[in-house]
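Internal tracking record. Fields below are filled automatically when a chain is submitted to the structure queue. Please do not edit lines marked as system-generated. If the sequence contains nonstandard residues, flag them in the REMARKS field before resubmitting.
Queue: standard
Priority: normal
Entity type: single polypeptide chain
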Amino acid sequence: MAHIDLFFSTISPFTYLAGNRAGEVAARQGATITYKPLDIMSLFARTGGTPPKDRHISRVEYRAQELVRQAKKLGMPLNLKPAHWPTNSAPSSYAFIAAQNAGGGDLGKLMVALTRAVWAEEKDIAEDEVVRACLAEAGFDPSLADSGLLEGAETYAANLEEAVERGVFGAPFYITDQDQRFWGQDRIDDLEATLAGKM
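SYSTEM-GENERATED OUTPUT FOLLOWS
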């Protein structure tokens, strides 16, 4: 069975725009997914990237245009300047890791709920009540927001190290079990074509 490692950030707008399409691809292609939330700002620092606030104005302007274009293309609401961004992505990531370990819900739906909260709903995913609501929406026990914090912190840090070692430099980033790498929500079709043996 094919496998996908999905590296993502709960505060990434492009992870938000990706929605759960990778999960749909996995279902169609008989693949499994391991979700790996990480600290995107630290990843930028480790892999030659620049946090959005420090980028040249030409890159800032292009990013803004591209986000709007892609959101329209996908029919998704998007606030280019959300009230709570950037925010601390650790609490939501720890909760996601706890949910993945516990099982019983829909991880793709949880990723969507967390990123939508930031980019479309003006919510702060550093707040426990917001994280609990996202967990419940995705079919998980909301109390997972309060459990496994040490393991969550260790896994979150390990995901960053693994990402750096495996060539990840942005989010969302997909790596197949054949080490085929795909960066960005606009490469999901290529991911599927690869899994289907067409690329």
